[in-house]
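Can't attach files on this board, so I'm pasting raw text. These are the components:
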Amino acid sequence: MKLYTYFRSSAAFRVRIALNLKGLPYEPVFVHLAKGEHRQPDYAAVNPQALVPTLELDDGTRLNQSLAIIEYLETLRPQPALLPPDALERARVRALALLVACEIHPLNNLRVLQHLKRGLGQSEEQIKAWYQHWVADGLAKFEAELGKGRPRGRFCHGYVPSLADCCLVPQIFNARRYDCDLARYPETMAAFEACMQLPAFDRAQPAKQPDAE
Amino acid sequence: MKLYTYFRSSAAFRVRIALNLKGLPYEPVFVHLAKGEHRQPDYAAVNPQALVPTLELDDGTRLNQSLAIIEYLETLRPQPALLPPDALERARVRALALLVACEIHPLNNLRVLQHLKRGLGQSEEQIKAWYQHWVADGLAKFEAELGKGRPRGRFCHGYVPSLADCCLVPQIFNARRYDCDLARYPETMAAFEACMQLPAFDRAQPAKQPDAE
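---
Top answer:
Structure tokens for the assembled complex are below.
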């Protein structure tokens, strides 16, 4: 398998974690988002959405959208499971993952920040305030959700890492980059710290990618 | 089952469609987002994320995040299926759904538009331009994806409506509200029109909800 990835892409980071957790080897293909390589014709042929990541299977089939990719990996390599067997627990894990993927990350990704700068003429300071606003809004929701009915265990849902952790960890890395105050989310940060003790998460982090700057 | 809903909420609209398609009856509980009812203590007890929809099961269990809810309904009532049996096809349907749920809708929901107005001092005209910008960006991606390897059939993926259609249709309703030019997305609009011929989609639309204004 090939993974089209960029070291700082949160969505690619999620998939890197999942691949590592499942012990699936992959060949990284680097797409430099900050240089706009995702908008070049070469990559448009790979992914017409011009988004990273894309997972390319050995037969050439290409999948996109990080959560759809991880759900596919769950079918391809069921163990270790990233979703619990019980349907209600699965709903909780997916809801936590979607809380990051639909409520926080989309507001703060590169093309939105670029649009705030170029389209709306926002200053660096204003963009940072925007970033911090949505992280605070989203992580407060995440913390409330973890506090409510969190099963025992160190991770977002129990004793093993799940799809929710695959989404949370990259979001925390981004939040730190933008100097967000994370002390307000102790349950959330406890899950984050538990994840970072695992090599699968550690090896997937931006600074440890070959394309890191 | 109870569904905490608001007639104009895209995410609640998705779940209303899925419940209708699966023939699952539900009792609607109305949460007036524009009046801020989702931020009142009553609703905080229901959903600490202060987001709509919430699905409450007969035993009181509450689920949130529309896509997690629909995946749960798929397990609860497998037929008619909203996800194809083949894992790669499932990945495609989920990716289309996520393209709406992660790339378009989060940028244009009510709290973001309110923040643009109150936090950033954007005018109504500027907010409309923001809305249209992200709809155009996202639907161009959706159209490219539908054009590429779309299987035969009238819907987003084949001859039956899927999770992708549950997400697309509310997005098109929103796009029309903000006068977006939809003529540029013929494949997408063909799928939309096919959906709207089905009572399950038609009955779920904002104007036909009891709380519609």
